[in-house]
Amino acid sequence: MEPQYERHCWDDVIGDDERLVMTRYRPRPPGRRPALLLIDCYRKVFGDRPQPLAEAIEKFPSSCGLAGWAALPHLEELLTRARAAGVPVLHTTGDARVGVPGGGVTQRAPVPGHDDAAGLEFVEPLRPREGEIVVRKSCASAFFGTPLATWLRDLDVDTLVVAGETTSGCVRATTVDACSAGYRVVVVEEATFDRSPLSHKMSLFDLSLKYASVVHTDRALQVLDAGPG
Length: 229
Fold this sequence. Notes:
Residues 35-217 form the Isochorismatase-like domain. The protein is of the alpha/beta class. The chain has helices spanning 16-22, 43-46, 53-59, 66-85, 148-154, 167-180, 197-210, 217-225; strands spanning 34-39, 89-94, 133-137, 159-165, 184-193, 213-215.
């Protein structure tokens, strides 16, 4: 008997060719020593309250609108469970320190009157605790130009549970680099988000084939509950 197909958010945007391609891939299962990596969970993408994207970007040009707020409970649950299990937790944010060069995370046009460095404080429910690593990055991937790989080796991590934003940008870039560096990667579907629903769905679909296991929150919690091994 064929195993039952697990439904995902991309089911309504892929066609027969993509479903055929799916049969040619087998994602690797997670390892035994996970870490939780939360990507760019700062104020500038959430804003100060839930608002539709068209309203939120007036004050917060980098906002993901309601998508971020829908993901927030899942992000909180992952963080709570990782801490309870003694799993290493790492957070990324933008590097806005004076004198730090960087090519910019994206090609987004500057907005007059807005400071791109503003809003990089973490949203309160996801604020790092003392002892949790904060990775400051100036490009999309959390690995590019940062000590992340060194820190992960020191922590003896073999699996990254990745969540945050944006699915098509920093989450994707970090996941590809993590896979290239030999890590098992678990991307949490409900705990990632993007300002474009289509980009979110297709990025998760593509990552699920080539670079990661894309799982629902309940499965990611099981990986974290297994502890640091």
